[in-house]
Amino acid sequence: MGKKLTSRSEDYSKWYNELVVKADLAENSGVRGCMVIKPYGFAIWEKMQAQLDKMFKETGHENAYFPLFIPKSYLSKEASHVEGFAKECAVVTHYRLKNAEDGSGIVVDENAKLEEELIVRPTSETIIWDTYRKWVQSYRDLPILVNQWANVVRWEMRTRLFLRTAEFLWQEGHTAHATEKEALEEAEQMMHVYAEFVENYMGVPVIKGTKTESERFAGAVETYCIEALMQDGKALQAGTSHFLGQNFAKAFDVKFANREGKQEYVWATSWGVSTRLMGALVMTHSDDNGLVLPPNLAPIQVVIVPIYKGLEQLDAISEKVDPLVKELRAKGISVKYDKRDTHKPGFKFNEYELKGVPVRLAVGQRDLENGTFEVARRDTLEKESVKADEVIEKIETLMKDIQENIFKKALDFREERITMVDTYEEFKKVIEEKGGFVSAHWDGTTATEDKIKEETKATIRCIPLNAELEEGRCMVTGNSSTQRVLFAKAY
Amino acid sequence: MGKKLTSRSEDYSKWYNELVVKADLAENSGVRGCMVIKPYGFAIWEKMQAQLDKMFKETGHENAYFPLFIPKSYLSKEASHVEGFAKECAVVTHYRLKNAEDGSGIVVDENAKLEEELIVRPTSETIIWDTYRKWVQSYRDLPILVNQWANVVRWEMRTRLFLRTAEFLWQEGHTAHATEKEALEEAEQMMHVYAEFVENYMGVPVIKGTKTESERFAGAVETYCIEALMQDGKALQAGTSHFLGQNFAKAFDVKFANREGKQEYVWATSWGVSTRLMGALVMTHSDDNGLVLPPNLAPIQVVIVPIYKGLEQLDAISEKVDPLVKELRAKGISVKYDKRDTHKPGFKFNEYELKGVPVRLAVGQRDLENGTFEVARRDTLEKESVKADEVIEKIETLMKDIQENIFKKALDFREERITMVDTYEEFKKVIEEKGGFVSAHWDGTTATEDKIKEETKATIRCIPLNAELEEGRCMVTGNSSTQRVLFAKAY
User: Fold this and answer.
1) How far is A279 from chain B (nearest CA, A)?
2) Is the Cβ of A55 closer than 8 Å to some Cβ of chain B?
3) Which residue among A24, A117, A169, B391 has its CA within the 20 to 30 Å range from the CA of A123?
4) What pLDDT, on the 0 to 100 scale, is given for residue A3?
5) Which ranges carry the Aminoacyl-transfer RNA synthetases class-II family profile domain (chains A, B) (predicted)?
């Protein structure tokens, strides 16, 4: 296991980086900014994918697949879109390598230069809307409700495992509608789907809202988002859903004949969550001993560790454990019985604590005699002795309790860190010293937003949905405002 | 639906291309050689993925994810590997675009040139073995049994939907072992897993074997393969599993301490199947009316079409159909009840025939009176009237029957097209006129293999596994041979 983790209070950022690597979630690769997602980390992502995919299908969406490459000219068709992505994209210029004539090795073959450069997709609106043009003729072809699971590339200069990587995995929904109203409803619906997933499966509480103009997706008319709070008091955008208006339909000339036979431009949405959620999961719940995983997403929900001397004792323990494993699996609970004889129980305890396994059972000689198991829960580190015939019920209860408890703990943490302020002085003090979300009045201008960002590094995370209207004055300019918005420093 | 499909006898290749597009499986995109997999096609691929993934996990494999990009220098480390892939790879040279100074649009920013070019992965052995070096220290770290679902790019000049595309989706297993024996067993096991999947789920019979040296994967010591036969008499390689020896371990310096504490190089395998399987599925079973899908992979297994005049009749039909739909779904059968009033029954019949839905139920006024359904099976186009209380049983039987029947039909077709020949004259005649597999003696040299390929376009598809040894003479050179091999023209 190597030495102990750096603690959160000592260096939160270092704690995170160490934890992701030590818990076998991911590691850096030999390719700048690109990560390797290790099997244990990928197993969590697979569980996330499976649940999200189910929720997308329940809301009427189908999956499809579009090209990895985007011709440069496509990207340029939507003005604000190219503005947003041109500065950080991987460009394919050639399609062949060859042996250097001077024998110095393999080089790019200059005779194999592409006529038009291809961009590795940073997001797929352009290639998808170029395709939708062929799919849509009449209102009968609408809506198109399509999702894609894919890798995308954004050439970030400063990267961190899961939180900001050059390549990441995500899903991107791209829908086409006959009316503005329907598209708006779709964009809002998907924000709610994301919130439901993040809260009920990841156990991470979120605030729903919309982005200000300067924080909007490049090409969107409105961006809905869900915002979470990490343990260091910084916010993390956990998912976004965009109402794109007719911007991409106009850029790619996607029209349909409405019921009256008149040609209209199609209305669009797009929405996505990514492997960034893995970072949010780690940073919300984990502690100085390692990961804390929600039972709903843990690849191993229960681990059983035998404590024994000699094979005879192990056999006696296995006789008790094997049927339990079977019963738990029949109930859909994923169990690992770790009887490796190459490692001591204490080593195993540390390993599963580090890896965030929600429930650990230990069973030794005394438990055998008493007919009990020692049951430990990862979230609170509490242990108790449970009678063998009550252990399944106990585990089932713990699965629910732990899921609820870590959500509640994160919610309490966040609620304590939403501070309402009325002056800019107070704002700066809270942002600097306490962190978390700060609820304040703002005059609605990008100029003020930029000034605040420059002076405090805090940005407007969202204009909360369904927040109460309240007459007030912008804390910076004193101009009138009708609603508080949420500021925070963010990942 | 547009006009009828080109028939297979008229132009097999055109029939295939039209069918893939008209049945909504895939279409060409605006990016040369890259396809769009449409929702209906992707739903079949998802079913393939789900089943394969289950079989991989049952054989002890876990999923992980490795970078899309491979530094040029990595590719060069294994000599025959770079030889195999350098001529057809997409090369990333820059990481930023900018506005041209002369206002002519968006151009590559020459100030953002990469120090080392990155290759879009054509396969991931190099980046993965660079990673495994960090994962393996001792025999306790072995085996590593990892699979990846990913997109890869090979810059093919002549592309065809599913069969040969610049970008395709696949899975690639990459395993690391302490002994040669274990690695060989793994490579062979995965060939068997592939064969089981392709035969039992896709309904496509395959021949298992090994590749000759010239047909082997670039960097492999032995390549196991499964070969299928299409309706035009051409073979299609449906999956390969490679024993890589210690080639990649040596190229990337991956050693482990064995039980005696001695350093040894690790033994490797890799194995993959791709969206090419979609092409094999289409070409094996489909007919001049459209797709024929195996029930085990059909996104819609049963479609129900009401035949009615006016809403009152439709309501009466729905009263009978709705509970049936519910019952079938409870049994895990995917059903679509198509009561769209925008299309006539005849149109719908053609549509589902084209899309290969295994079973179609129709119900009209007379069926209502008689308490029956008209049940049609897609594979034989047979129809019969079935009593309402027997229809579920009938459907369950048909699911099995159709699955078995299409396999048997394909098997009979193939068995009729394995021809044993002893002279080169006969060989050329069979390859030209009859097609299919030709079983013949060959002297084991690449020179003879090349000559045959040049003169007849036929290649050695495989050296069949467990074939009888038989003394013979090479049909071309007359040199001695101990086993017949299988030749065919191939996709």
Assistant:
1) 16
2) no
3) A24
4) 67
5) 27-294
